[in-house]
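Re-run with default settings, no changes from the original entry. Doing this only to confirm the output is reproducible before filing.
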Amino acid sequence: MLQKNIFQPIIIPFNKPPVPAASFRYLKQVVKSRKLSGDHEFTRKCHSWLRKESGASAAFLTPSGTHALEMAALLAGIKEGDEVIMPSFTFSSTANAFILRGARIVFVDVRPDTMNIDERLIPAAITRKTKVIVPVHYAGVSCEMDAILELAKAKGLCVIEDAAQAVKSSYHGRPLGGIGDFGAYSFHETKNYTSGEGGAILIKDPSNILRAEIVREKGTNRSRYFRGEIDKYSWEDIGSSYLPSEISAAFLFSQLEIADKILNDRLRTWDYYYRKLKPLADEGKIELPCVTKGCSHNGHLFFLKVKDLSVRTRILEFLKSRGVLALFHYVPLHSSKAGRKYGRFVGKDRYTTSDSERLFRLPLYYGMAKTDAARVCGLITEFCKGL
């Protein structure tokens, strides 16, 4: 009889969501209170934290980052036939939020250093139908917001930041998400701070706050009723159910109150990766991520680029065979079935496709052991030495 092998390979996952000790206490508190729907104590605490951190006039939790973008599209007045400019190297939600309102998506090439939209190419994509520019802050590193804001002001366009990956990141001292007219955060399980599924919309202009409350509450003025400002509430506008549960807010707040601790821990792993893998970059074996001047990032993800798709496929298989889960990222939207139907690519695709095929992400999460990060670096070095 063969003896069962009790030794299993060490698995280093791509992500582990943070679970602070306080989260259990807060969840118990919510359940005990019987106030499980949204907009109670922990929701209000999250809103206060988000306003303070982002510098926005208002912040509202939503069930997802997708919902935050959908709310922004509604508040921006997107209608049938409008055009919205964004990079193709992003998640489908960035486009879907506007397509649902009848807009057509105009894709622009990315910069190869940050994988963010190339601000120099945006002017050529603007037409008389253009309504919104959507900068996506990839990996928590800012787009060149000054150039984008200056262009938007000159053309009378709205700027909606897809800051899903950028909580606690900044551009020349200004928090991402709070720079444009609207911003959207994600608190998905893979993000630095999570409620499992969740998000938030940030609002810059105070004149948009009241309508945002109405849109978020199924088109009713229910929020004003609960504040005692009116004696009954009614249907006033279009809207949807954009409130997450109090349970989600409580779990999220347990992380937000130790946000700097989580941030610094992730940055330590990010910096370790960069330092240990730089010799391979100096040899031309890999390309490292770039944080542009004046930007501070949040250690959301650490990506590498290799020579081509074939090498990426091989290194991902190699790492997985050694118990390390590394992942590629977005397939460019303009190359997809829906992307061809609902959008168009303006200008030459110099980097979006080629660089997306070379890019992959390393494991990175709060509490990641240095020994695990060292193992990841060692395996990448081993693979690259054999190239």
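Confidence is low (pLDDT under 50) at residues 1-8. Residues 259-282 form the longest helix (24 residues).
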